[in-house]
Amino acid sequence: MLDKRITIDPSICHGKPCIRGLRYPIEDILEWLASGMSIEEILADYEDLERADILASLDYAARLAQIKRVDRLVS
């Protein structure tokens, strides 16, 4: 599902992962959900998004969270 829903294009949103080549970065969708918006509210506000897009965003985030180790950055 991710390969059809999540796209990365350097000419769209500076290469950030987005929904289907649209200008909806995954991080925005995750922030909307984290702020308390429901999937239904997001879909009502952004009519070109689909429920599967929101679920793909959550799946993408879950996969990123599966990293084995996080090292601190040294400044």
UniProtKB/TrEMBL annotation:
Signal peptide start and end residues: none
Domain of life: Bacteria
Pfam families xrefs: DUF433 (PF04255)
SUPFAM superfamilies: Homeodomain-like (SSF46689)
PANTHER family per record: SSL5025 PROTEIN, SSR2962 PROTEIN
Protein name: DUF433 domain-containing protein
Origin species: Acidithiobacillus ferrooxidans (strain ATCC 23270 / DSM 14882 / CIP 104768 / NCIMB 8455)
